[in-house]
Amino acid sequence: MKSKDKKTSKDDKQFVSALQVAKYAGVSRSAVSRAFTPGASVSAKKREKIMEAAEALGYQVNDLARGLLARKSRLVGLVVTNPELGYRSHLVAALTKALIQRGSVPIVINTGNTEEELVAAQKTLFGYRAEATIILSGSPPSSFVDLARRNGQPLIVLGRSETGADDVNIDNEGAGREAARFFLAGGAKRLGFAGAMSRTPTTIEREHGFRHEGELRGAEVMIGNGSNSNYSGGQEAAQQLFSGVKRPDAVFCVNDLVAFGLIDYITHHTNLTIPGDVSVIGFDDIPEAQWDAFNLTTFRQDAAVMAAHAVALLDQRESEPDRPPAHDRLTTELVIRGSTRNATAKSRSEPERIR
């Protein structure tokens, strides 16, 4: 009796096979395969018997194995560095949702931050013969792009541009110029930019647009770069910008996480107030930007919209594999809250939006 119980426990841990369904239904193994293959020849009565057996046993088709046999895995790799941080986490969530609705199977490949982690990530992604690759942000290196090309995969790049690849991008320079104009219209005299030493394409473009527009209009522009584009990087950038005799009275931050670090540094390590002494603009409009602790004026990137554009480009590439690379450009809106002097007379609960 004990032996039987042990056997049952072991069997319960195994996936139900098509052969077990065939035996349960009293049909051949090939009949089960045909029943689960759209358009395959099998009688209605036999299909019903097979489906009842599958339901009783809890059988599910092994889509991965079927896809590999058909040389189309339906896997789509999402390549990203630090997917848990800021806007990237929301973009990964939006992409996985959109890909599942499409019928794809998303796999998130975290490239890590070391050469060893990068090599492991590359082996994982291309070892599974993914149907396509989507690369997020500027952090994953170009070696991923080159390897994807050599493997003949459709490639979508988000937040950067790569030769020969479809991409979805934000008008980063335009947002930087708009931030400078907004500050100057509010009475700012000396501008600051809080960026990162990682120098990703988005950081470079936002800084360039902001600096060029500010200097074009006669303003002095100061630059502070943290080690990374995260909260601690924002604190480092703030220390650089506010430790000297000269200080900016308005700061554009490369993203919201940097803005949060900068705001906390100003609040807890200087005698300055926000927005009375310093106006702050971020970028992304992640949910925390609305928190009372920050009440951050920021440029909104809609993760769901970017994900929809990425999936649409993937569909287009699969239907027209030889067409030239497509370049989608998305606009942002400036959501005005209480971290800028221009917004002091406006309701905290009803932010103004500038398109």
UniProtKB/TrEMBL annotation:
GO MF, one example: DNA-binding transcription factor activity
Transcription regulation keyword on record: yes
SMART domains: HTH_LACI
Extent of the signal sequence: none
Entry-linked PANTHER family: HTH-TYPE TRANSCRIPTIONAL REPRESSOR PURR-RELATED (PTHR30146:SF148), LACI-RELATED TRANSCRIPTIONAL REPRESSOR (PTHR30146)
Protein's organism: Phyllobacterium pellucidum
Domain annotation HTH lacI-type: ranges: 16-70
Stored PROSITE patterns: HTH_LACI_2
Keyword Lyase: no
CDD domains: HTH_LacI, PBP1_LacI-like
InterPro entries linked: HTH_LacI, LacI/GalR-like_sensor, Lambda_DNA-bd_dom_sf, Peripla_BP_I
Protein name stated in the entry: LacI family DNA-binding transcriptional regulator
Compositional bias segments (type: Basic and acidic residues): 316-331
Keyword line: DNA-binding, Repressor, Transcription, Transcription regulation
Region (Disordered): 316-355
